[in-house]
Write a structure and sequence with these properties.
The chain is 11% helix and 48% strand. It contains one helix and twelve strands. A twelve-stranded antiparallel beta sheet has the order 8-7-6-5-4-3-2-1-12-11-10-9, with helices on one face. The longest helix is centred in the C-terminal third of the chain and has 18 residues. The chain is globular.
């Protein structure tokens, strides 16, 4: 099975959260544009400029929660759990869970069987947030990207 490797790079000058997502060859795979709204709203566009996904923060919740949409269909959510030292997230999408380090720079998404679905690592010493997303099954690439976007948005809000 082929693996998918994506480079997730935040744009330096942008009024809203905006990201470019590249493949290993440096080709743009997705473009993510932040929208003006209550809470974070990130629209994901394919190479042809078609909107294919959305990460929408649910407002007026005790702890941050994000809904994940493919087109107009909600395919899951991710919400932060209350914890003292290590941030933890509950994922209601494809029976996945997040496991990561204390700084949240390197983490992985695993399924119920404990198999790694995606590995995320932050590249240090860049002007903007830059992550590498390695996905075991390319069909899971968009959902993995949406989880990374939600976690990054939650971290930005917290900081």
């Amino acid at each position: 099975m082929d693996r998918l490797k994506l480079l997730f790079k935040q744009r330096f000058f942008s009024w809203f959260d905006s990201y470019d997502i590249y493949d290993e060859a440096g080709n743009t795979v997705y473009e993510v544009k932040g929208q003006l709204s209550w809470g974070h709203c990130l629209k994901i566009f394919d190479r042809a400029g078609r909107e294919i996904g959305t990460v929408q923060e649910k407002v007026f919740t005790l702890l941050p929660e994000f809904r994940l949409y493919l087109g107009d269909t909600c395919v899951g959510s991710i919400r932060k759990e209350f914890s003292f030292f290590k941030p933890r997230y509950v994922i209601d999408c494809k029976d996945w869970r997040v496991e990561g380090n204390f700084l949240e720079w390197d983490y992985q998404v695993v399924n119920l069987a404990g198999r790694c679905v995606a590995r995320i690592s932050k590249q240090l010493f860049n002007w903007t947030d830059t992550y590498v997303i390695e996905v075991s099954d390319p069909a899971d690439g968009l959902c993995a990207l949406m989880l990374v976007l939600a976690i990054d948005a939650e971290k930005c809000s917290r900081d």
